[in-house]
Amino acid sequence: MSTGSYSTRADLRARERALKVLYERFCDILKDVMEGREPKLMIKRRTLSNTIYDPERKLLLLGDATLERSFLDSRESRKFMQTMLMASIVHEALSQGEYPTIRDLFYRGKHTIRYRRLPSKAVGEENTWDEQAESDSVLRDIEVFTNVLREDMLILSKEKGKVVGDLRIRSGDDLIDLSKMGHGAYAIEPTPDLIEFVEVDADLVLIVEKDAVFQQLHRIGFWRRYRAILVTSAGQPDRATRRFVRRLNEELGLPVYVISDSDPYGYYIYSVFKTGSITLSYESERLATPNARFLGVMMTDIFGSRKLGKKPYLSEEERRSFIIRAKERDVKRAKELKEYPWFRSERWQLELDEFLARRVKLEIEALVGKGLKFLADRYIPEKIEVGDWID
Amino acid sequence: MAVVEGGFRSISPAEFFYKNKEIAGFSNPARALYQTVRELVENSLDATENYGILPRIKASIRELEVVPEGAYYEVTVEDNGVGIPPKYVPRAFAQLLFSSKYVLKQSRGMFGLGAKMALLYAQITTGQPAEVIVAPRGSKHVYGFRLKIDIGENKPVILSFSTTSNISGAHGTIVRLVTLGDWIRSKQRIYEYVKRTAIVAPYAEILFRDPEGNCILFERSIDKLPPPARETLPHPHGVDIETMKGVLKSLADKPIAEVLVKSFQSVGPVTAQRILEEARVDPEKISGELSEQEVESLVRVMRSYRDVKPPRADHLSYLGEEIIVSGLKKVFDPEFVSAVTRRPSVYEGHAFIVEAGVAYGGRVPVVEKPLVLRYANKIPLLYDEGSDVVFKVINEKKGIDFKVYGIEFPAPLVILTHICSTKIPYRGVGKEAVADVPEIEEEVEAALREVLRELRSYILKKRRELEEVEKAVEIAKYIPEVARSLSKIYGVNPREASAKLLEALNSKLRSFKIADLDSVVNWDEHR
């Protein structure tokens, strides 16, 4: 193993562990090959039908259905080859002390196979993979097969999530104080499991879907005033942000609140934090935060609710200027959400029904339009205080 | 050629046939040349295979002189047949409708005219006599005749006769005549005829020399002859008034009950009594004395009489699966060939057998729609395909759907059908198409479906094998990649891992193995 001299101890440990697991998990394939048996990979299926919602744990999990990927089955041989190729590339990167991205892995593995078709003997050419979607897909299979997430194999991705707050962490060999980030914020590293929480002084975690709103809240010192760890996912949360939030909740015992746009896409972003996503359901167990709460923006925040005895935060006139007409695809998406088991609660059905009846949506920015102070000093603290969130 | 002594009669004068020569296929010089070759070759085949002799036939056409209507051609056909005894030669070759008694026999000739019509036509158009040389089997002599027909009297005229000793011990017949023809217009037809004849006579060696000096030889590919055709009595269900009158005339002085027993198959004294009772004819009545009404009544009863055995088929001469297969193989060199001989069946009192063959792939020409080689009593039917029963069976819209059998046109496919019977129900005077009699249609369809089913299994098997080859490559091409991947993780020798993978793949393949991985995929060593 020739790891670079600058590698941290945390990285070294992760490498050794990942190498060992990879080596052991694919050992059966090696034995099959060398002993003349048909090599087969048994991998849990990553399909919607094998994605199961566990209402007890409030998690989206991978079911038990497995697929048998046999090299000697012509329908599976290409995928088998790609899986083995990906395993060898990841193994190589790990043992050489590298930090590839999924894009790097795609390029490393991509090359042309030249062969002869029979019986015509015509020369054929084929790439090991043509699109990153293919290499990404087998990487997911390897994560499922080895039960090691890509972060733990030191595969990096673009940093998207940011965090500020009264929290000190150790990343690599450095101690970082997240309350001293100036106007900036700490970019959550792609390997959040290598972060060590050193010290924290906060009461809650607030996740803001929109980066701009995150910055505004940061600049007016929201997190200091309300003792919050402020996080943004800047849209759909990446894996690192989800894992980081999960650890804040699980290890530091902080309640997690999410605010997003009031439309089906915003609601789904919340559910990804809370229960996991369909495509990455195998990781939910480590990435999801089942205790995360949806703070807003709710349909009932906009229109109030007689049923809940709730008054609207917006006046008739404000509504007229802030709300946007929902598009056809928003309506379609809302109908899909209504069917997902993790949106089946009475409270969610009420919100979704309201959306479908009104056919309008609202962005968080609209609340800032009413005044940043309104958002920071009334809307958020008031809702947390009275417990107007959806679990 | 069956010639039986006793009771020869001239039914109709030669003159009549000359005036109606279209009926026998001599309507113009082109058609006449084709018909001449055909009649002589068929005579030769009958003279050999019916007597257990493997045929060796030489046919040649030589152009002698160009005339306004075409040209005079010398046509010579030579065989190694039995060679009829010299005393029958003049009548056999130069007297029309020379027949002895009312028996049925499957033969190639359509009218019992055979070569006689060819001789008659040659004589009328060129004025030259025909030359016939015979060496009967076992004869110490070879006999030569120069013959003409006295058209008015329908009698042979012997212009010269010679005898030489048969030194070699060979036997057979040579017929040579000079006739008016048109080679250019009949060339294609004659070649087609010779080729199609060779297909169903793979047991024959046929040499043909055309007037341009080209030679084509069809070698013998099988030593087995089809069962010879044998004579049989007519079956009561197949009788008609004309046949009945002939039968009555031939035994005019005998009681009718006895005549029925002697002249029909499956009719014993009891059956004869019952038939006559039903027809209200006195069994004791002398047959020559039956009234017109009695004859009609008798025929009607016999045709529909239930309590008789079906017509016998053991006298029919079918080709047999082996011969059809051999013939198709010889001429088309196909990849797949199959044939079937159906069990005998009956229509209107006549026994018949249908056979079918199919040749596929190899050198079989690719056709846009099914190509059928039709035969009746071993003679190729070349024309009038559209009105033939076979055409109806394979008709694109209502007939057999070839897709069901895995065949998509254009396809390298040729189909053969053979119908043999003592009476082929031809459609029209051309005698080139068989009528769609329901019983025959049914048998033709069943025969075709049977061979097509076998072809289908072959095509499917081949397709499966091809798929397996394709699938094997789909897997084999990834072997080096997988082996290299294993080698990177575990440090094993990639060549060894790849050999193991190939071995595992090969053990799973059934119809095909990959001997050498390098023949399928590049190793690309520098990676």
Strand pairing plus helix content of chain B: what structural class? alpha+beta
CATH homologous superfamily of the largest domain in chain B, by name? Histidine kinase-like ATPase, C-terminal domain
Strand content of chain A: 15-25%
Distance from first to last alpha carbon of chain A: 47 Å
Strand order of the largest sheet of chain A: 10-7-13-12-14-15
Q: How many separate structural domains of chain A?
A: 2
Strand order of the largest sheet of chain B: 7-6-5-8-3-2-9-10
Radius of gyration of chain B: 30 Å
Q: Which CATH C-level class of the largest domain in chain B is it?
A: Alpha Beta
Specify the structural class of chain A.
alpha+beta
Could you tell me the number of beta strands of chain A? 17
Task: Give Rg of chain A in angstroms.
Answer: 24 Å
Q: Summarize the largest interface: chains and residue counts.
A: A-B, 36 and 37 residues
The helicity of chain A comes to 40-55%
CATH architecture label name of the largest domain in chain A: 3-Layer(aba) Sandwich
> Helix segment count of chain A?
16
**Structural shape of chain A:** globular
Specify the helix fraction band of chain B.
25-40%
Give the helices and strands, then pairings.
The complex is a heterodimer of chains A (391) and B (527).
Chain A: H1 9-25, H2 27-34, E1 40-44, E2 51-54, E3 59-62, E4 66-70, H3 77-95, H4 102-109, E5 112-116, E6 123-127, H5 132-146, E7 162-164, E8 167-171, E9 174-177, E10 186-187, E11 196-200, E12 204-208, H6 211-219, H7 222-225, E13 228-232, H8 239-252, E14 256-259, H9 264-274, H10 284-287, E15 293-296, H11 299-303, H12 316-322, E16 324-325, H13 328-339, H14 346-358, E17 360-361, H15 364-369, H16 372-386
Parallel strand pairs in A: 12-13, 12-14, 14-15
Antiparallel strand pairs in A: 1-4, 2-3, 5-6, 7-10, 7-13, 8-9, 8-11, 16-17
Helix pairs in contact in A: 1-3, 3-5, 4-5, 13-14
Chain B: E1 9-10, H1 14-19, H2 29-49, E2 56-67, E3 70-79, H3 89-94, E4 98-99, H4 115-126, E5 130-135, E6 141-150, E7 155-165, E8 172-181, H5 183-200, E9 205-209, E10 215-218, H6 241-250, H7 256-263, H8 269-278, H9 292-304, H10 321-332, E11 336-341, E12 345-347, E13 350-360, E14 366-367, E15 371-376, E16 379-381, H11 389-394, E17 411-421, H12 438-476, H13 479-490, H14 494-508
Helix pairs in contact in B: 2-4, 2-5, 5-10, 7-8, 13-14
